[in-house]
Specification:
Elements lengths: L41 E5 L4 H12 L3 E6 L3 H13 L4 E5 L5 H15 L4 E4 L15 H22 L8 E5 L3 H4 L5 H20 L6 E5 L8 H5 L2 H4 L14 H12 L10 E2 L10
Parallel strand pairs: 1-2, 1-4, 2-3, 4-5, 5-6, 6-7
Helix pairs in contact: 1-2, 1-9, 3-4, 4-6
Length: about 280
C-alpha cells in the first residue's frame, strides 16, 4: 500500500485553486513507459491545467496524443502542464476561458481542430465546488456558477465536439463518488455530478449508432486544487484518511482510468462509470 503523504492544514481563496501553491504537490507523473496507445490522436481536456486534468494530459501525451488544454484562469499551472506535455515529446495548445459560455466552448473545439487537424477524444473534466453546511445559505449565484461549470459546460463542449467525432472516438466525463453516496456539505456539487452521470448514460445510448463511446470516471478523495480551494483548513488537514485505503488518491492514480476509456482496450464499454475511489463501495 503506498504511503499516505502528510497533508497539513491549508486554504486558498479561489476556485479553481492553484496547484503550484499546494503542500505537498500532487503526484501527476505516469508510472510506466508509453507504448503508443494514443499515437496520432487528438484529445481536448477541460480543466487540463492541474489536478486530474494535468495527470490525464501528461499520460495521454506519453501515449502519443496531442492535447488541447482548456483552463479558466490559472496561467502558471497551465504553462507548467504545457511544458510537461512537451517533455513527453508531444504538443499542447492552451485555451483560456469559461466553458460555461457556449460561444467559448465552441471556440475551444474549433481552435483544437484547427491546430491539430481533428479531434478524437473529449475529456469533460473542468468543475468547481463550494463547501456549505446549510442548503439555505447557498446563494443563487453560487448554484448557477456550479451548474454552469459542471453541467452546462459539459453540454456545450460535447455539442461542439460532436461535429468532429466519428466512429471509434470517445467522450469521457468526470463525475464523482459524491454522485453515488451524496455529501451533506457539497449538495450543489454532488447534484451536478449526478447530472453528469445521467448525461453520460443518455449520450452513450444516443451515440451508439455513430460508434462513439461515452463513459464516466467517478473519483473519490483525490489530492487536487479542489481541496484547498473549497474546504476549511481543518478539513484539508489529513484529507483522505477516512477512505477505506486510509489516504487520499493522487491524480496519476485516476488518470489511468481515462486512458483505458480513451483507447480501444475499452471497446465494449459505453455508458459505464469507473470508480477510482480508494475502496468505497457504491452502486454503479
Amino acid at each position: 500500500m503506498p504511503h499516505a503523504p502528510d497533508i497539513p492544514a491549508q486554504h486558498q481563496d479561489a476556485m479553481p485553486a492553484d496547484e503550484h501553491r499546494m503542500d505537498p504537490a500532487p503526484d501527476y507523473e505516469p508510472r510506466f513507459p508509453g507504448v503508443g496507445k494514443l499515437q496520432g490522436k487528438v484529445a481536448l481536456i477541460t480543466g487540463g491545467d492541474s489536478g486530474i486534468g494535468r495527470a490525464v494530459s501528461v499520460l495521454f501525451a506519453r501515449e502519443g496524443a496531442r492535447i488541447g488544454i482548456v483552463y479558466l484562469r490559472e496561467d502558471r499551472d497551465a504553462e507548467t502542464t504545457r511544458q510537461l506535455v512537451e517533455r513527453e515529446g508531444s504538443e499542447a495548445l492552451l485555451i483560456k476561458g469559461d466553458i460555461g459560455e457556449k460561444g467559448f466552448a465552441t471556440k475551444a473545439v474549433a481552435s483544437t481542430v484547427e491546430a491539430f487537424g481533428g479531434l478524437d477524444i473529449l475529456v469533460n473534466n473542468a468543475a468547481q465546488q463550494y463547501f456549505s453546511n446549510d442548503l439555505t445559505e447557498i446563494d443563487e449565484q453560487q448554484i448557477r456558477r456550479t451548474f454552469d461549470s459542471n453541467v452546462m459546460g459539459y453540454f456545450f463542449m460535447t455539442q461542439a465536439a460532436l461535429e468532429h467525432l466519428s466512429e471509434g472516438d470517445a467522450i469521457i466525463n468526470t463525475a464523482s463518488v459524491n454522485a453515488f453516496k451524496g455529501n451533506p456539505v457539497l449538495v450543489d456539487y454532488s447534484s451536478t455530478r449526478g447530472a453528469i452521470t445521467a448525461f453520460s448514460r443518455s449520450m452513450a445510448l444516443q451515440l451508439l449508432d455513430r460508434g462513439i463511446r461515452v463513459n464516466c470516471v467517478a473519483p473519490g478523495p483525490i489530492w487536487t486544487p479542489f481541496i484547498p480551494g473549497s474546504m476549511p483548513p481543518d478539513k484539508v488537514e489529513g484529507f483522505g484518511a477516512n477512505a477505506p485505503m486510509g489516504r487520499a488518491g493522487q491524480p496519476w492514480e485516476v488518470a489511468t482510468s481515462y486512458l483505458f476509456l480513451a483507447t480501444q482496450e475499452s471497446n465494449y464499454f459505453t455508458g459505464q462509470t469507473l470508480h477510482p475511489n480508494g475502496g468505497k463501495i457504491v452502486g454503479s
